[in-house]
């Protein structure tokens, strides 16, 4: 997509979700590269959410007679849930584990519902020769069920343990930076369109 014309619209609030909680993983480095590359843009406002720092158990209250969340879980939700609700778009940074995405990411997704609705989602994936693309394709199905809109273009880092330098940046950045720009441009287009649509007619009403 081409560059957007100047706009008086407020910057789009984008939550960047680091989906892996695995120790020693490359997710934080990949997220730092991405936010560092696009963070200069004045048309987006980034908020990084790292699942590794969230105390969200896999057992959920209010279902099958389970008790209310423990205090630690309530504190985690009090922090992350409003941030997801305030976001107008999302970028999910995900590895590929065993042909899929991490359980930690699915757990964060499943603890929420309306926070995803009628909002666009882009992906930055990494892992092996496939670059995490199988994880992305499965996540598209998950977010479709949650009434979210996933953008067509994504960023795919193949073999990040050799494709990223010690500073966390791609060793050959040209292709990755171009992909990131295209994905964010699409995210911004959908984010603005859906912002207007939600304001004019709240989703699901």
UniProtKB/TrEMBL annotation:
Residues 13-158 form the NADPH-dependent FMN reductase-like domain. It holds the Pfam family FMN_red. This is NAD(P)H-dependent oxidoreductase. PANTHER family: CHROMATE REDUCTASE (PTHR30543), NAD(P)H-DEPENDENT FMN REDUCTASE LOT6 (PTHR30543:SF21). InterPro entries: Flavoprotein-like_sf (IPR029039), FMN_Rdtase-like_dom (IPR005025), NAD(P)H-dep_reductase (IPR050712). One of its GO terms (molecular function) is oxidoreductase activity. It is an enzyme of class 1 (oxidoreductase).
